């Protein structure tokens, strides 16, 4: 579900959780409208910390990667 336009997000990428203690899984969804949507599971405090991080450099980095169309490596 897109946070921007509310449409179903069908393009979902699993994202490495390396370095994020307590976070079990993260998905990145790219909507047709350009909005990037995140989902995460794991310990509540760890997931909250992840979303807090999205408010800083992480969101800008991921957004620029998807906007220019370049594919990002998951290792
Ligand atoms: Zn959207």
- SSE string: EEEHH
Ligands, ions, cofactors: zinc ion
Evaluate the radius of gyration: 12 Å
User: In the residues, how many domains can be counted?
Assistant: 1
Q: Average the pLDDT over all residues and give the rounded result.
A: 76
Tell me the overall shape.
Answer: elongated
How would you classify the helix and strand content by structural class? alpha+beta
Let me know the number of strands. 3
| Tally of helical runs | 2
What low-confidence regions span 5 or more consecutive residues with pLDDT below 50?
58-68
What's the N-to-C terminus distance? 26 Å
Strand order of the largest sheet: 1-2-3
Largest sheet, strands/sense/barrel = 3 strands, antiparallel
Strand content: 25-35%
Give the helix level as a range of percent.
25-40%
Features:
29% helix; binds zinc ion; 75 residues; single chain; 27% strand
Word description of this protein:
Strand 2 (23-30) and strand 3 form a beta hairpin. The protein has one domain. The longest helix has 11 residues, at 44-54. The chain has a 3-stranded antiparallel β-sheet with strand order 1-2-3. It has helices at 44-54, 57-67, and strands at 11-15, 23-30, 36-42. The model is unreliable at 58-68 (pLDDT under 50). With 75 residues, the protein is α+β, with helices and mostly antiparallel strands. It is built from 2 helices and 3 strands; from the N terminus they run E-E-E-H-H. The protein binds zinc ion.
């Amino acid at each position: 579900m897109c946070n921007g336009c509310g449409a179903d997000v069908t393009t979902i990428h699993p994202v490495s959780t390396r370095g994020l203690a307590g976070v079990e899984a993260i998905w990145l969804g790219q909507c047709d409208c350009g909005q990037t949507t995140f989902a995460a599971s794991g310990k509540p405090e760890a997931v909250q910390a992840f979303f807090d991080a999205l408010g800083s450099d992480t969101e800008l980095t991921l957004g620029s990667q998807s906007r220019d169309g370049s594919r990002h490596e998951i290792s």
